[in-house]
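Tutorial, part two.
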Amino acid sequence: MIEIRDLHTYRGLNYVLQGIDLDIPDGQCTVLLGRNGMGKTTLVQTIMGLLRPRGGTVRIDGTDIAGRPPFAIARRGVALVPQGRRLFPSLTVEENLTLGVSRRSRGSRPAGGAGWTSERVYELFPNLGQRRHHRGNQLSGGEQQMLAIGRALLTGPRLLLMDEPSEGLAPVIVERVGQVIADLREQGLAIFLVEQNYGLAIRSADSVSILANGSVVWRGTPGDLDADPAARESHLGV
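Running the prediction step on this input gives:
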């Protein structure tokens, strides 16, 4: 679905992404690993149009979306679960979800399943259904993460970008996030997962790439990475 070629992005004067090549296939979970400060979030934000690259292409079905505004990229079927969740704390669960409903999502059908509705999100995350009238700042960290995922799903995406979804969560909630990723992948949704939690990343991945100093320095399968202790120690400190 997504083909990234020779992508270059700056943050101010900082040259962050230095010629990224990466593929994100349909119906698979593509994982990006790397130490802090290597450019992972910059890559996610560039794909989503929150940062404008200075060179390279990001193609969806052959159409280059690099540098387009986020709303145009969302209409191509890309949704973001941002690092830190970025909910509206004074709005209720229901109101946060309603903001995720777009004209596109009301008529769309993601691969492998019916279109997303609030009720379908509540089926996926029963706790949210029970707390639909609670404000965002009244939710636990795990509930906030589920709400951020549900809000993204309501746009009817073909590709879900997930930036550090396990950050700050208890181990039992991290396990739940992993199960949700597995369920969505089985339904045919493409997922691009940026993660620091090595166990969650490896369990979720169909393919793995490692980013270091703005470049992809390793790529392969989860099994390949488990069998390569030198790469894990050098690039991840694992």
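The chain has a mean pLDDT of 90. In part three we will examine how such features are distributed along the chain.
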